């Protein structure tokens, strides 16, 4: 209960903002990507390579749906919004914050998508992935924080302010 779950595109800052957010609030921090790796005893890229995108989503759903923590900031992987059971669970255990970043900024921030292990269909562009996922992030978000063009500290402040206001999407 009382968890803060961060969702958003890969590179939006869920992992890097999440750990500092937890420090500021006196919360614990977990990154569900790291839990997946620990439980599977494989890296994310190994899981994607060996099990394919659908296999990875099944693992991602199972692991995220079984997270049991309190007063914890949870940084999820960008593809968790394909996992409805996991998202319903995370929503029931606290507030879900969508870290929104513009496609323009994201393209500048992200280098090699494949190298980062992003779940792309063959030939899919970042733009098409962004369009596919945006409605899903919006659907599951209680709060949407637009990072605009802030640095990490600036984005963190925006998240803290939004949480304080308790803005509902
Ligand atoms: N305003 C910002 N908010 C968050 N991260 C930022 C920001 N500006 C630059 N970055 C950089 O973008 C990257 C975000 O990566 P990461 O935290 O791994 O994202 P995610 O977990 O959402 O994939 C980091 O290298 C971080 O330093
Ligand atoms: O968006 C994606 O398809 C993915 C994002 C990654 O996490 P980050 O969002 O933390 O980069 C990781 O879960 C996996 O490689 C797939
Ligand atoms: Mg991350």
UniProtKB/TrEMBL annotation:
<feature type="binding site">
    <location>
        <position position="78"/>
    </location>
    <ligand>
        <name>substrate</name>
    </ligand>
</feature>
<dbReference type="Pfam" id="PF01202">
    <property type="entry name" value="SKI"/>
</dbReference>
<keyword id="KW-0547">Nucleotide-binding</keyword>
<comment type="function">
    <text>Catalyzes the specific phosphorylation of the 3-hydroxyl group of shikimic acid using ATP as a cosubstrate.</text>
</comment>
<keyword id="KW-0028">Amino-acid biosynthesis</keyword>
<comment type="similarity">
    <text>Belongs to the shikimate kinase family.</text>
</comment>
<protein>
    <recommendedName>
        <fullName>Shikimate kinase</fullName>
        <ecNumber>2.7.1.71</ecNumber>
    </recommendedName>
</protein>
<comment type="pathway">
    <text>Metabolic intermediate biosynthesis; chorismate biosynthesis; chorismate from D-erythrose 4-phosphate and phosphoenolpyruvate: step 5/7.</text>
</comment>
<dbReference type="GO" id="GO:0004765">
    <property type="term" value="F:shikimate kinase activity"/>
</dbReference>
<feature type="binding site">
    <location>
        <position position="133"/>
    </location>
    <ligand>
        <name>substrate</name>
    </ligand>
</feature>
<dbReference type="InterPro" id="IPR031322">
    <property type="entry name" value="Shikimate/glucono_kinase"/>
</dbReference>
<keyword id="KW-0418">Kinase</keyword>
<feature type="binding site">
    <location>
        <begin position="11"/>
        <end position="16"/>
    </location>
    <ligand>
        <name>ATP</name>
    </ligand>
</feature>
<keyword id="KW-0963">Cytoplasm</keyword>
<feature type="binding site">
    <location>
        <position position="15"/>
    </location>
    <ligand>
        <name>Mg(2+)</name>
    </ligand>
</feature>
<keyword id="KW-0460">Magnesium</keyword>
<dbReference type="InterPro" id="IPR027417">
    <property type="entry name" value="P-loop_NTPase"/>
</dbReference>
<feature type="binding site">
    <location>
        <position position="116"/>
    </location>
    <ligand>
        <name>ATP</name>
    </ligand>
</feature>
<keyword id="KW-0057">Aromatic amino acid biosynthesis</keyword>
<keyword id="KW-0808">Transferase</keyword>
<keyword id="KW-0067">ATP-binding</keyword>
<comment type="subunit">
    <text>Monomer.</text>
</comment>
<dbReference type="InterPro" id="IPR000623">
    <property type="entry name" value="Shikimate_kinase/TSH1"/>
</dbReference>
<keyword id="KW-0479">Metal-binding</keyword>
<feature type="binding site">
    <location>
        <position position="33"/>
    </location>
    <ligand>
        <name>substrate</name>
    </ligand>
</feature>
């Amino acid at each position: 209960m009382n968890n803060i779950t961060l969702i958003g595109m890969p590179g939006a800052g869920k992992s890097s903002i999440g750990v500092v957010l937890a420090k500021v609030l006196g919360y614990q921090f977990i990154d569900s990507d790291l839990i997946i790796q620990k439980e599977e005893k494989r890296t994310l890229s190994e899981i994607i390579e060996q099990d394919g995108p659908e296999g990875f989503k099944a693992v991602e759903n199972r692991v995220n749906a079984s997270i049991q923590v309190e007063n914890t900031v949870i940084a999820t992987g960008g593809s968790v919004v394909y996992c409805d059971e996991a998202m319903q669970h995370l929503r029931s255990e606290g507030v879900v914050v969508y870290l929104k970043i513009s496609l323009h900024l994201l393209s500048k921030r992200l280098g090699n998508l494949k190298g980062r292990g992003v779940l792309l269909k063959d030939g899919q562009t970042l733009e098409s992935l962004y369009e596919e996922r945006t409605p899903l992030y919006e659907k599951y978000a209680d709060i949407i924080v637009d990072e605009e063009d802030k640095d990490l500290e600036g984005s963190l402040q925006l998240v803290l302010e939004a949480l304080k206001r308790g803005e509902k999407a």
